[in-house]
Every structure is written in structure tokens, then in C-alpha cells.
Write a structure and sequence with these properties.
Blueprint (H helix, E strand, L loop, with lengths): L2 E7 L7 H12 L3 E7 L5 H10 L4 E4 L13 E2 L1 H6 L4 E5 L2 E5 L2 H11 L9 E4 L3 H12 L4 E6 L2 H13 L3 E6 L12 E4 L22 E4 L8 H8 L3 E3 L1 H17 L5 H10 L2
Parallel strand pairs: 1-2, 1-3, 4-6, 7-8, 7-10, 8-9, 10-11, 11-12
Antiparallel strand pairs: 3-5, 5-6
Helix pairs in contact: 1-9, 4-5, 4-8, 8-9
The structure holds 2'-monophosphoadenosine-5'-diphosphate.
């Protein structure tokens, strides 16, 4: 019987995940299919019942359900537990097992470039589910101080409490308190959805330089305003698609227990732009 996989979230219409996984299934001749299923924020419980009814084999979780999904899971892995959010679920005969592939998916492109994280300072925009996984990833690599800047300052303060628990030094500020000089940050990471609608970055980019690493987790468009400005300053840039690819490869390997066809998945993402 064909196995069905899905990504759930809202909005989901522009998700590349169905393309990536379906391309991988085709490449390896697997009898599987992957669909996008929109579940509005307040309909998660009903949506999950629907998924169980069609005997979903596994699914990815995106905005706005990554944290809310946790209470519906029967078992979670270590990273999920640490981060308090899940983006990859397996369905074992009606039992939902949660994983989090965001953290390692985030770190992979940094490691691939042999960039040092230990002791380096970070400016992190955003304080949602993705930002949480990023804080946990940086913590694992013994980062210096992370300055968390968020539109809603209370959420930055909340994320700061989480960071303290896992032993990372942080400051929590609002987007309006960032100041004009970014040269003390080795890493500048956008973990908000700013850029998705082609908006300009709220960051003052004048002091970004060739020693800065600018990582935008927004992958659509490929060249966000922040990425464009960082390139003009000759910073090292890391594209959002790289994190998307990293987490998709890991999700594939969790579900299928075989090595993911990395190149095909990468080509599919880049072909989608
Ligand atoms: P994710 O799982 O991708 O992290 P999320 O938990 O909904 O999604 O978090 C979205 C992040 O983007 C939040 O930090 C949010 O800021 P608020 O906490 O103030 O809501 C941020 N964000 C989204 N749209 C934004 C905008 N237009 N300007 C500034 N920040 C924005």
C-alpha cells in the first residue's frame, strides 16, 4: 500500500516540502506520496484525527503548530524535549513519535563552511519555535552571548529564560533597541518571517563586514533583502534553503531508515525558485 506523508501548517500553499520528498521518492522508486495539508491554528486536534484516519505514515510540522503539537505526541526524542517543539513526526500504528530536525538542520550549513561558533557572539532576530531550535543549536556548540531581538519583547524575555536553563548567556531586547553598530556580532540570524513577502530587513546593515556571517532562515525568495545587503558588504551568507534541505534530509532518514538522495533534494529546492 502506498504510504502517505504530509506537511501541516498554515499557510502551506508555498511549501517546498512536497516537491522535495516526492522527488526523493521518485529517485529511489519508493511507493510513497507527500502532500501539503493546511490546518488552521485552532483546528490542530481535528486535523491530527484526520491524519490518523488516513493512516499517515509521517508528517512535518510548520508554523504555527511546532510548539502546540507537543501535547499530542506519545513519545518525543531528546532534541524535541530540549527545544520544546517538534517538526517531524512518525506514526507508529496510531502512536505519534516526535523529532526535531530543525536544530541539526540549522547547524549543518555552518559546519559545512567550517565556521567557528564557540565563544562567538550572535544577534538573533525572532523568538518563535525556529528561534528556540537555533538557541539550542548554538548552545550545543558553546556559543558566546546571544542577543535575542524580537518585535514582541516579552517573547524575547521568555526565550532568554529557556536559554538560561540550557546554559547560554543572552540579552533580550526589542527590534527597536538593536542600535546601529552590528560589527561586534560574528553571526546575524534572521529567524522571523520578515523577508517572505519581500519586505526590507529592519536591521541597520551598514556595519556588516566580511567577517560577519549572515544567516537568513527565510528561503523564499532565495535572495531576501537581508541576504542581498549582506552580500554587498561581502559577508559570508547562509541561505534559508540550506536549513530547509538539512531538516528535510534528516526527516527522510528518520522515516525511511535509508540515506536520503541529497543531490536530488537540493536540485528540487533550487529548481523551485
Ligand atoms: P517559527 O516557528 O517560524 O519560529 P513563530 O513561532 O510563529 O514561527 O515565530 C515567528 C517569529 O517571527 C516571531 O519572533 C515573530 O515576532 P513576534 O513574537 O513579535 O510575533 C516574528 N515576526 C513575524 N512577522 C514579523 C514582522 N512582520 N515583523 C517582525 N517580526 C515578525
Amino acid at each position: 500500500m502506498t504510504k502517505t506523508y504530509a506537511v501541516i501548517g498554515d499557510s502551506i500553499a508555498h511549501s517546498l516540502s512536497p516537491h522535495i520528498h516526492n522527488a526523493a521518492f521518485k529517485e529511489l522508486d519508493l511507493d510513497c506520496t507527500y502532500i501539503a495539508y493546511r490546518i488552521p491554528k485552532e483546528e490542530l486536534a481535528d486535523g491530527l484525527e484526520g491524519l490518523k484516519k488516513i493512516k499517515i505514515a509521517g508528517f512535518n510540522v510548520t508554523i504555527p503548530h511546532k510548539i502546540a503539537i507537543m501535547k499530542y505526541l506519545d513519545k518525543v526524542d531528546e532534541d524535541c524535549n530540549l527545544i520544546g517543539a517538534s517538526n517531524t513526526i512518525s506514526n507508529n500504528d496510531g502512536k505519534l513519535i516526535g523529532y526535531n530536525t530543525d536544530m541539526d538542520g540549522f547547524l549543518e550549513p555552518i559546519k559545512k563552511r567550517n565556521l567557528k561558533i564557540e565563544g562567538e557572539d550572535v544577534l538573533l532576530l525572532g523568538a518563535g519555535g525556529a528561534a528556540r531550535a537555533i538557541v539550542a543549536g548554538f548552545a550545543k556548540e558553546k556559543v558566546g552571548v546571544i542577543t535575542i531581538a524580537n518585535r514582541t519583547k516579552d517573547k524575547a524575555v521568555e526565550l532568554r529564560q529557556f536559554a538560561q536553563k540550557i546554559g547560554v548567556q543572552t540579552n533580550a531586547i526589542s527590534l527597536y533597541e538593536i542600535g546601529n553598530n552590528l560589527s561586534s556580532y560574528k553571526f546575524i540570524v534572521n529567524a522571523t518571517s520578515i523577508g517572505l513577502k519581500n519586505e526590507s530587513t529592519p536591521l541597520p546593515t551598514e556595519t556588516i563586514n566580511q567577517n560577519t556571517v549572515v544567516y537568513d532562515i527565510v528561503y523564499m525568495p532565495l535572495n531576501t533583502d537581508l541576504i542581498k545587503k549582506a552580500k554587498e558588504k561581502r559577508a559570508t551568507v547562509i541561505y534559508g534553503y540550506e536549513m530547509l534541505l538539512g531538516q528535510a534530509v534528516r526527516a527522510f532518514e528518520i522515516w525511511h531508515g535509508i540515506k536520503a538522495p541529497y543531490d536530488v533534494m537540493k536540485r528540487t529546492i533550487l529548481g523551485g525558485f
